[in-house]
Every structure is written in structure tokens, then in C-alpha cells.
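Minutes, project check-in

Agenda point 3 was the complex the collaborators sent over. CS summarized: three entities, 1015 residues total, and the question is how they sit relative to each other. Sequences were read into the notes so everyone works from the same version.
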Amino acid sequence: MARALGLALVVAAVLAFPLSVGPYPVKLVQEILIWGIFAMSLDLLMGYAGMVSFGHSAFFGIGAYTAALLLPKWPGLLSALGAPALAAALGALAIGFFSIRVGGVYFIMLTLAFSQMFFALTFQNAFLGAEDGITSVPRPLVFGVRISSLGAFHLYLITIVGAAALLLHRIVRSPFGHVLRGIHDNEERMQAVGYPVGRYKLLAFVIAGTVAGVAGSLYTQFVGSISPDAFLWTTSGEALLMVIIGGTGTLNGAWLGAAAFILLQSLVSSYTERWMLILGLTFVLFVLFAPGGIVGALRGRVGVRS
Amino acid sequence: MKAVTRRTFLGGAAATAVGVAGGPWVLRAHAQSGPLKVGLVLPYTGAYAVLGESITQGMELVFARENWTVAGRKIEMIKEDDEMKPPVGIRKTEKLIDSDKVDILTGPVHSGILLGMRDKVHASKTILIVSNAGADDISRAKCSKWIFRTSFSNWQPNWPMGPWVAKHVSKEVFVTAPNYQAGKDQLGAFKESFLASGGRVIGEDYPKLGETDYAPYLTKIKQSGAKAVYAFFSGTDAVGFVRQFDEFGLKQSVKLTGAGFLVEPDVLPAQGKAALGIISGHFYTPLLDNPTNVRFVKDFREKFGGKMPDGFACQGYDTAESIVRAVKATNGNTQDKEKLVAVLEKTEFESPRGQFRFDPKTHNVIQPYIYVREVKEVAGGLNNVPIDKVADVKDPGTGCTLPA
Amino acid sequence: MGREPGRARLPPSDRVPVVSDVFAQALNGLAYGVLLFLLSVGLTLIFGMLDIVNLAHGSYYMLGAYAGVTVLMMTESFWLALVVAPVAVGVVGAVVERLCLRPLYRRGPLDQVLLTFGLIYLFEDLVKWIWGGRIRSIPAPALLTTSVNVLGATVPSYRVFVIVFGLAVAVALWLLVEKTRLGAVIRAGVFDSEMAAGMGIPIDRVFTGVFAFGAGLAGLSGVIAGPIQSAAPSIGATILIPALIVVVVGGLGSLKGSLVGSLIIGQAETFGKAWLPGASMLMIYAVMALILMLRPQGLFGRPLK
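CS then shared the predicted structure for the full assembly.
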């Protein structure tokens, strides 16, 4: 009951936002929501399945480019959500199949390599817009209505992002989620007990990749364009930053991490040129002293029942 | 009893934080007849920050001369760092347009950011004066009546070099640029006019962007027997290529020519003597002897601690000058955008680069001259000395359908 | 009308690649390979000893280049820079290891990798703060600014120096690790740190030393590469990928692998640029991915558990 109330509070605040302030803060919030769900999908991988991936941006990019290519010609929800999700899922299946076999630092480097391959491909491909990417992507038509207005897109975004977040929460609490956590804790034991560990990890990888693809597609719809930068390993790194600052293994920490990163990048950069130093320092301090992220710190501080 | 769960607390905290953060923006959006707000979307961090700085300094020089007032309105420059990243650049553009409600927008350096912001600018009828990005498209298929450009199109510095190189250097040239669209576009303009002047391209190579070792390419150039090279590189690529070109002893047998960016002041100090003798095409060099430039160089160096202005500073100067003249002509009225556009189209003044005007057909600057310059040692160090010039270089604007 | 852009032309077809042409490129490949070796050996050493993939490796390379710039500005001596820069960067490495990495040893390698990622941002901005954003040059020493003729091919003498110097470093490292007592100590510590500690070896200090040494090697490569590449705040990030690829191919943790891997890649990349241009960007990542998929331990690395 209290939980539902809390959730309602948050949703109401986010919904009411466009009515109270100008368009720019609203757009910041929208961007936070998009990066937040992207980071949350990474948290599923990192915090629950224990797989640190530097290639998560590959699926973000696949979803983003799929939407960018399809929306101008077929502006429906299939192009906006269906196709990008499917493309990202297939990509995750392929990349995951090869990457899951190795673990630890090799997994990190292999996912990094795949992500960079996509970057190289799109950067030099004229059909995909080369280094400038694809621009002038229209907003999709939802039930026949083009969601160009700020309020309409806000509603649309919250619905999709909310659904994705709910899905991730459900997965984590499901038996599947428990097995994942078991694998994270002690993979050999789970293997010995008889779980097909590889398949569980692959499924987690595909789910995370699919949500990342949806996030990418939403990003294209939000901005109206996409460039190869989306595929850079440093983009994956930024998502990692968000997960860690928010709190690994908390799912909701992703919102906070995304907010912290974007506000640092946009707000702080208006006041000081040293924002990158602050970001790096913050990240290092979090890894060293607050491994639970903001959420972890809050849990300790507020002292409420868990 | 309702226990205050973690989630409630976090949700409330988040909502409050976001609300508090949003506050300042609500207060910022004040009425139009106040200060003249000029927005700058430029890189102030990262490898290209030096360009952002130069452009800004050129603008500040003009605004300071006007005592930061025009037509009774105080001039307010709002600088936003785009980090050379399209997501950030687009976000900052939205901030400047939606939140700060700038009267005039300027920038960016990165063509990708320019193309990403183009639709937003066009749809919101915000006047954008492009102070660097050279994407040809903005003066062609993607032109907009609200967008003007004071810098250059990628085509402009390269096209006049074709006939010049064919006539004065060699009819057999090896061309090279980094392997990305902008690089190929720059070379494309050169090749078109070079071939039309009877030249022959005897070799072409596109090293990857950010290449560190040009040895294999330089060996190939040597083996091709070419007497001349036409190159487009910028930033660290330009430094690496020029220095290694010298390191491999190619300067003895091959003449290095290229687009001006190969030897601009952001890279010339690092290139040092390796750059001597390089011939390049650009609309500016601080050694121009027209009175406006002489004064510009003097004032710039005085204001900015002896720093020598470059093409980027000139772009900033011309941007600010256009703004000042346009706003004066409309008596400070920036609400009537149509009138501002009409006035801007007729802009004409003496710029450090020569007589400045916009092409009403494309809203792109008509380069009064593209100077052919050679790197020489002059008083004060290495600099680009003008040795020839091509007048009135206008971008062809193919595919641009602006009302003339 | 014109040739379409993007299609690079090979040298005119009536010129068959002559032996001296190939030899010239092979020398280029050797110089580049040795440079890659100097660049990557620190990374592989740190992984081999400490099980850390130091993502901030490029930052130490960059710091070395900038330290070189400063020494050159003050003394105009390239040779002095060659000595001072690695030491300075080594000190920085030691500080980083002591303050940031040692507390994380209990927590496992992934946390350490993540921390080094954050350091990338930190170092890049620090460098910009201290030295400004302009590109700075490291000129080659006056002795080495000419070209020499090697069996018909003209090679810049600086590149010859790089080859000789790099190979000398390789030999010195091998001797150090395989033949000295210090090397034995380090190898013992790597093999079984608890046992080594139990035998009285100050493992903590050994680890700090190794990390500092690896960072110092990266710094050294920054100075050596300086006359070829110059110093800019962006070089740290761009150099990381080539270094990673070399250690992946050679095998994480293997000194021999680092040398062999970098020489192979040096040749492959050089001839790739000469004969198959346009493919280089994608190819290197594809190679990296293939190796990680088919033989993750590379040529000489430890087999995976």
C-alpha cells in the first residue's frame, strides 16, 4: 500500500512536470528517463547477473538506428518500438552467444570490441549517414495521432519507460531472477546443481539488450536524429557510471545515476569547465567508498525497514 | 499504519530535487524587450576547445567595441559547452532556444551537431548564424531561411585550389584526407576543379580518422612518383601528417599543398619547421594587409594577451559584426524575424578577410577571397603568408531553394 | 568526371610492388610494431602480475608525453625527458595504486577495472587544466632528424632508433623478469601471493612497485612516440584500443606475447594500410573479437580457468 502510494507520488510528479515549468527542464527529465531505462537494463546485467559489459551501447545503437531508418517511411509503433526491440534482441542474441563463453575481463573486452565494430561500420557507411548519422527523423504515429507536442510525447515516454521498468522489476523478483542472482553469487555451485548457466546468462543478456534497444529507439524519437557516437564504448562506460553512482543491483538507482550524470553534464558544465574532473572524481569516490551507490548510501542513512 | 518505505522516500526526494532544479529555469525566461541574448553552442572542453575559444574571442572583441550595447539593448552572451558531442550539443541548443529564449543563436564547430540542430532551429524560426561548421548541406539541400553562415562551406577553400595547383604546382597530384565524409567532401571539391583544369589524380588514400602512424601512406606517396600532394587534415591528424611528411624526407621531392586547416594556428606551433613551405587555401591569414585586418590583429592581441588571431577568430568577429549591424538596422527589434532575415541578407561590411557579404541564395558567406598561402618564417615565428588569391568564391548551393 | 571519393587507388598498375617497396613497408611495420610493444608491455605486465586490466593505461601514456613536453620546455634535452618522464609517471602510478586500487583487492578485479575507467575522465581533465588544450610537440633530438638508407629503403633515423631502443627494452625486461632475484620475487608473488607473503615477501610493496613500473613503461612510450604523435588531451583515449588489441592477441600477462603480438600487428596493420586501405578501422576490432572468441588467451597467455 505504502509502496503504491510512493510510486504514485513519483509518477504524478513526473506527469505534472510539463504543466509547471518550461520545455527545457521537461526535456532534461525526458532524457533522464531514457538514459535511466538504458542504465537500468545494464543494471540487470551487472547487478543481478554479474556481467560487466562495455558493449551495451551496441544494442542502444541498433535500436536507435533501426528506428531512424524506419520511422521516416512507416511512422507507426512497429517502427518505433517493435522493430528496434526485435533488432536489438537479435543483436544481443548473436553477440551474447559468443561473449558469454568467456568471463571476467575477456567478456569486458569482447563486448567492447563488438560495440566498436558497430561504430566503425556506421561511421563509414554512407547509407547510414556516415559520421553525421541520420537526421530529420519524425515522431511516430500512436493510434493515428502524431505525438509531436511536448505533453503527448511525455505521456508516451512515461508509459513505455514505466512498462519497461516494471518488466525489469518483475523479472528480478521472479524465479528466473533468483537463479540469476545465484549464478552471480556462485556460478560453479549453480552449475553443479544442474542449472544451464550459459542459457540463463544469455537470456538475461538478451532481455537487457532488448530494453537497451527500446531506450535507443526512444532516444532517436526524442531528438529526431542519431549519430555513430551512440555505439562508442565510452557510451557504455557512461551507462556504467550511471549504474554505479545510482547503486548496482538496485534497479531504481539507475534513475538517480542517470539524473546525476546528465545534470552534471548539462548544469555543472554551464558553471565550470572542470565538470569532467568532478565526474571522474565522483565516480572513483563512489567505487571506493560507496559501492552501493546513492541508493546504498540512502539505505544506510535513512534507516528504514528494507 | 503507512510506514515510510524506502521507495516513497526516494520517490519524494527525486521529485523534489527535480522540481527544485527546474525552478531557476522558470525564472530565467523573461520578456523579449530586455537584453539582446546571443547564444553560443561551442566546444569549451575537449580537443576542439581552442576553436571554441577563438570564435568566442572574436565575438567578444566586437561586442566590447560596442560597449556591450546595441540599439539600447544590453548584449548578453550565453555560452554553452557542446563537448563536440551531438547529444550534448542538441540538448544545449534546446536549452538556449526553449529556456533562455535567445534572440540569436550561433555556433557550432561540429557539423554533426549543426545537422542535428537544423530541424529544431528551422521549426522554431530561431535565427542561427553558423560560426564554424562547414557541412556543405546547410547551404544546399538542408538550407533554411533562418540559418546564415559566416564561416565557410567545406567546398569553398578547396575548389579554387584545383586550378591553382594544376597551374602553379603540378598536374599530377596524390590526394589524401581522413576516411570520413567531411574529408571526402573537401577532397571532392578539389578534385572536381583540378581535373577540369587538366590535372590527373595519380593516387588517393584515406587513412583512418585519428591515425597515429602515416608511414605506410607516406611510403606509398614516395613510391607513386607524385610531384605534389593535396591533403586535408585537421587537429592532431594535421600535426601527425605534416611532421611525418617531413620526417620521411618527402619535402625534398614532393610539394605539400592542402586545405587551410592543415596549417592553421591551432596546429602550426606543434608542427614547427616541418610545416615550412606548405601551400594552403583559406579565406584568412593574420598577415593580410587590409586596414580592417591590421586593426583587428592589433586589437585582438591587445585584448587577449598577445595571442595571434586566426580564421576562427575572424569567423567570430564576422558573426558578431553581422548581429550588431542587423539589430541596429531593425532598431533593436528581434521579435520580427522576417525583418531580421531581410536585413541580414543585405549585410555588407569590411571584415578582416575583405568585403563581407552573404549570398541571398544560400545565406552562406561569399568569400571575398580564398587566399593561397605559404608557410614561412616571419617576424614573430611561423605564419601563413598570402602569395596569391582567388576572388569572389561562392558556394554553388545546389539544391537550395530559398526565396531569393 | 571525377573519381568517386572513397575508392583509394593502388599505385599505377604498371608498377609491380618491387622488393624494395615491400621492404620499405616492412621496416615501417617493424618500427610501428616496436612502438606498439612499448605501448602495451606495461598493460600486459600489470595484468599478468595484478590481474587488473588498467583501462587508464592510455592516461599514463598521455602523462608521459606531457611530462616530456615540460622537461623539453625546461631543458631542451630529449634524453633527459626520456629518463624523467617514466619516473614521474611511475610515481603517479604508485600513488594511484596505493590510494585507489589497494583497497579494492579484496573486492575482485571487476571493481578495479571500473575504477580505472573513472580515472580516464579524471586524468584527461587534469592534463587539460595543467597544460591547456593545445596540441604540444615533442621534437626528436637533433641527432636523429635525418634519414638513413637501409638496404635501398629510406628510413627516418628516428624510426631506426625506436626499433633499436624498443628491442633493447624488450631484452632488458626479459632479463629482469626471468633472470634476476627481483623477477623471481615478483613471479612468486603472482603465482601464489599468500604463500609468498607467508615467506616474508612484502607483497603489498611488490604490487605497488609493479603497478608503478607498468605505468612508468606507458609513460616512457609516450615520450618515445612523442616525435611521431605529439601530445594532446585526446591521445590517452585513442591509444587504449590499440594497446588492448595487442595484449589480447599476444595474451594478457605474457611479455613474450606482448612482443610477438605487437610485431605481428605492426606488420599486419602497415601492410593493411598499404594494400587494403579503407578497411583498417573495422578490421582491427574484428581481429580483436575473433581472437577473444576463438582463443581468448591469445598466443602466449595463461589458459582460461
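Noted in discussion: The first strand of chain A starts at residue 141 and ends at 142.
Follow-up: revisit at the next meeting once the mutant set is ready.
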